[in-house]
Design brief:
Layout (H helix, E strand, L loop, with lengths): L2 H18 L4 E4 L6 H9 L4 E4 L3 H15 L3 E5 L3 H4 L2 H10 L3 E7 L25 E4 L7 H19 L5 E7 L11 H10 L14 H12 L4 E5 L7 H12 L3 E3 L15 E2 L2 H4 L3 H6 L4 E5 L6 H9 L4 E5 L14 E3 L3 H11 L7 H17 L10 H11 L4 E5 L3 H9 L7 E4 L10 H11 L3 E6 H6 L4 H7 L3 E7 L18 H6 L6 H7 L3 E4 L3 H10 L6 E7 L2 H25 L5
Parallel strand pairs: 1-2, 1-3, 3-4, 4-6, 5-6, 7-8, 7-10, 8-9, 10-11, 11-12, 13-14, 13-15, 15-16, 16-18, 17-18
Length: 586
Amino acid sequence: MNHQQNLTAYLHAFISSLANSGVEQAVISPGSRSTPISLLLAEEEKINVHVHVDERSAAFFALGMAKMSKKPTILVCTSGTAAANYFPAIVEAKISRIPLIIITADRPHELRDVGAPQAIDQINLYGNHVKWFMEMSTPEGSPGMIRYVKTVGARAVSTAIQHPSGPVHLNVPIREPLLPDLEHIADYQEKDLERSILHFETGMPVIEDNYFESLATIIGHTKKGIIVCGEIDKPGFSSMIRKLADATGYPILADPLSNLRSDQEDASKIVDTYDTFLRNERIKSQLKPEIIIRFGSMPISKPLTIFLRENEQAEQIVIDGGSGYRDPNQLTSKMVYCDEVYFCKKLSECISDCSVNHYFNTWIKINSLTKEELKKVNDIEGLSESKLFKKLGEVIPNNAVLFVGNSMPIRDLDTFFHQLDKKVTIIANRGANGIDGTISTALGVGVINKPVFLIVGDLTFFHDLNGLMIAKQYNIPITIIVINNNGGGIFSFLPQAELPRHFELLFGTPLNLDFKDLITMYKGEYELITNWEHLMELFTQTDFSNGLRVWELQTNREDNLLEHRSIMKDVSFVLDEFAEGDQGVS
């Protein structure tokens, strides 16, 4: 075979292997050295190809698709700094356990470290931020090399989805000329169908039955217990965690990203205002647990994290189906590597139902009192960041996806977005907690599930404006609510706010931007929200099935800080009264 035939046979077999292993989505950033990979991906009918010229945004776009579909998404770019722009999304994917397959085209070995243009060191470029790195051979069409490249493709998919899921990196050195043999592509397809396909089977981690029996005995003698659920996305988990709560008699402290606050199932054991009431020292002293069972990543709430840290005397059990280690408090007494749904099912079956007790009822009563006080945020007349999240639960459509940006929006969501009688899937990039790539990730989610609502601050919105090109290019329906307090609102809540010198320069960072013209550039609809009636009207009259729309909510950072303090003061007063009347948890 000549060079073109070798190139085509090798890369076609590689892409065919990825497709036959279950990959359905690919994001390509145009480039020269990646030409044959891109062209042959476009020829593969089983894979939907998306093109985005900004590599950083493209990577987060792929992350969103993989996050929502739970299937690996392919990322393709040329050699050089294009690959470096993938780094932030790869970091997020590794920590958040999102499967990505990064394919970076590269110069062949003889053009490395000799001053060739657009050549950087791409070997292990992403270090420990990927699960697996493979420096692939240069394309060759011999039978042995075809078997090799098909194996690499199947291994890449299998490795990406194995517990814990994550990104893999394949570096592909390619010699010129770079054009594949598209004229005879049917011949290559026919040959690939004749070749065997490598399949991987992956099981779930389980624990021996005697462990569940011994743990059930401990729980049977421990009334003061809580179940903590951070971000977790497992089919069947919602129902099984409720069965475990029924069996143990323990309340479930449900992080918004656990999606237990909005799944229309029994909410009688859900606690969703702990971020507020665990700031009260008297309440915390009444709620000291003896056993803590935790699932998923660490919760968003800092007061809850502190509460877990302060109760180091409690038996703290973490269940992780991905064999990772997620305990910044370093207080876990038992790290259990077991599929979370399986764990709940087996443990529930081993426990003789524990009736609810005063300890459980205290959690539920405090949660109810706090929720009633937080409802008073609806009395705020002016545009308010706190009230936005309270109102959002009332008006967001059933079966919508709510993507929430980091910094203040995700924290306000945790505080003011409570149990719903509708299904809303809540998503955020909480692996590295960064603000980069938020718009792009939400749009990736929107490819898989619609409609998508994105809530972000003005800095986060500005940071990923290039992502709006994807909405325009592929007509992905998305509604973005930009909370514009002209800067970094979260810093007003942090210690540096007590040092006003240089605060605005270094932390407030006002942008003073008019977003309207930017939205017009991307062919989107723009609305400046004038009052609550205006926002409610938009929710009732808008067709969310198509188009990009941006609704801007202008607020004041100082007013927001004072508003939060006032709300927390009122809640604390009510909780102190409750603590006075309650004689302790027995």
